[in-house]
Specification:
alpha/beta; two-stranded parallel ribbon; globular; 332 residues; 16% strand
Length: 332
């Protein structure tokens, strides 16, 4: 099977490509990635040249997307501008990539009658109160709270409209917060890990009570492949690992695993409009497709992630000073 993976040089996409090529010997993968700050061609180093091709390009380029989609059997659409803080500073790139780019892909898969899987986020649902026992589910209404989540919500609606109006063969998944190897060090978990490795205190937003439903990237990608292979066209599947932890709890686990006192961190300014809690009900994909996460213990997943950043310092060290300078300018 020939896959086109958009955003395949990013964190989740590159892990998907690596897993796909390692576990399916007959798969051929083409990656298109714009290589913005979050995309890194080094994420794809060492992949087999006879089954893998990289194209640097923009998903908003209609001609290029049409050519690449026409040569694929299935499109896995990871490409997105995805950092909430950046969307608050400059929303337009999020509108362009997440809305216009998804439109270009939808038109190409419509023209060539190709299979599409669209990757989305639980942030389209807004947030939950800390004392609310409910989780995001199949009937949860959309309530995005940032330009990032609003544009991802818009892209989800475009996919559903193209399925209903034009018969596009597409599925959607909304996933909780990912962590694992190759994640950009501006993100919460790798930032804390690399701070400690650089002998700098980690930084915690506000009180650290914000809760996320953490899932290891390998578990997310296993679910995506399951949906591509067995999912029902037009359906949306929510992916989570029952990994609810507050930012403070996650940081304390990281500190303990890395041999530091649990209070060895600095409190910094909270993010504007910081959502309080996300939680995913993944019972549908578990019930209908038989998927279950392997990393059910977040300590196990964080240990694997810490080991990766410890053993791959050359991958992140050159970026570290610039990332911390940008956060310092915001008081974070």
């Amino acid at each position: 099977m020939k896959f086109l993976v958009t955003g395949g040089a990013g964190f989740i996409g590159s892990n998907f490509v690596r897993s796909l090529l390692a576990n399916q010997s007959d798969s051929i993968v083409t990656v298109i990635d714009k290589l913005t700050y979050a995309g890194n061609e080094a994420n794809l180093d060492g992949l087999p040249n006879d089954r893998f091709k990289f194209v640097q390009g923009d998903i908003c380029d209609a001609k290029l997307i049409d050519e690449l989609v026409g040569d694929a059997d299935a499109v896995v659409h990871f490409a997105a501008e995805s950092h909430n803080d950046n969307s608050l500073r400059e929303p337009w790139p999020f509108v362009e990539t997440n809305i216009v780019g998804t439109y270009r892909i939808l038109e190409a898969v419509r023209q060539h009658d190709k299979r599409l899987h669209h990757i989305s986020t639980d942030e389209v649902f807004g947030d939950l109160e800390l004392d609310d026992p409910s989780k995001f589910g199949d009937t949860t209404p959309y309530n995005p709270s940032s330009p990032y989540s609003a544009t991802k919500a818009g892209s989800d609606h475009l996919v559903r409209a193209w399925v209903r109006s034009f018969g596009v063969k597409a599925t959607i998944s909304n996933c909780s917060n990912n962590y694992g190897p190759y994640q950009h060090i501006e993100k919460f978990i790798p930032r804390q890990i690399t701070n400690i490795l650089a002998d700098q205190k980690p930084h915690l937003y506000g009180s650290g009570q914000n809760v996320r439903d953490w899932i290891h990237v390998d578990d997310h990608n296993a679910a995506v492949l399951k949906i591509i292979e067995e999912g029902k066209i037009g359906e949306t599947y929510l992916i989570g690992a029952n990994g609810e932890k507050s930012n403070l709890e996650v940081l304390e686990i990281i500190l303990e695993l890395m041999g530091k006192p649990k209070d060895w961190f600095e409190v910094v300014n909270d993010r504007p409009g910081h959502d309080m809690r996300y939680a995913i009900d993944s019972s549908k994909i578990e019930r209908e497709l038989g998927w279950k996460p392997e990393y059910t213990d977040i300590q196990q997943g964080l240990k694997q992630t810490i080991d990766w950043y410890t053993n791959n310092k050359q991958w992140w060290q050159a970026q570290k000073d610039a990332v911390e300078a940008a956060y310092k300018a915001k008081g974070q």
